[in-house]
Amino acid sequence: MAWSQDEERMLAQIERHLVDDDPRLAARLESFNERVRRREGGGRRRGEQGRSRRPRRSTVIIAVSWVLIATLVATLLIMVLRNEAASALGFGPKAGRTTATLPALPAALPKKMLSAR
């Protein structure tokens, strides 16, 4: 519905008084109106045709999190596969033995220490 000429004249007069009385408020309202126009018009002005939109912060955080999780899983898989390969070649712990066994204490001591008793 269109405004009548009297209403448009009164609105223009109110706008002029607002700009004269409080220029900061007028600038804020104009900025808000510009944002609304851009959002309704598809988000791009004529000069912004080639520019792409930046991703949201949450999208970046999610992407970085996935990369870190994938790196962690890959690292764990590499560690497990290297351990299994070392065991198969005889460099790792023997099959069925989970803890290292210590030799008996008297056999491990040098002869000098045994004779000093």
Would you write up a description of this structure?
This protein is an all-alpha fold. Among the domains are: 7-43; 55-92. The chain has 5 helices and no strands. The chain has helices at 5-21, 23-40, 57-89, 105-108, 111-115. Helix 1 (5-21) packs across helix 2. It is rod-shaped. It starts with a helix and ends with a helix. This is DUF3040 domain-containing protein. InterPro entries: DUF3040. The chain crosses the membrane at residues 60-81. Residues 36-51 have a biased composition (Basic and acidic residues).
- Percent range for helical residues? 55-70%
Largest sheet entry = none
- H/I helix tally: 5
- Taken as a percent bin, the fraction of beta residues is under 5%
Pfam family, one: DUF3040
InterPro entries: DUF3040
Protein name: DUF3040 domain-containing protein
Keywords: Membrane, Transmembrane, Transmembrane helix
Question: What's the short story on this structure?
Answer:
This protein is an all-alpha fold. Helices cover 66% and strands 0% of the residues.
